[in-house]
Write a structure and sequence with these properties.
The protein is mostly beta strands and 65 residues long. The protein is built from no helices and four strands.
Length: 65
Amino acid sequence: MKNKVKIADALGPAFQTSKGFIRSYVVLDFSGAKSVVKVFSKDLAGLPDSGELVVECNEFCFVAK
């Protein structure tokens, strides 16, 4: 399942792994709550500083506090 989330803040630069890049973000989910997610991309273009991200949500979900 894919979800669109709005980037509230990028937490530092992307770091390189053997298979691509990972970057942490503070995002606003569909209910407006803030969450921290780590996003993997095969290239740096998939990890913008601001805007929106489309994330694959098979491995996690958003839970209200």
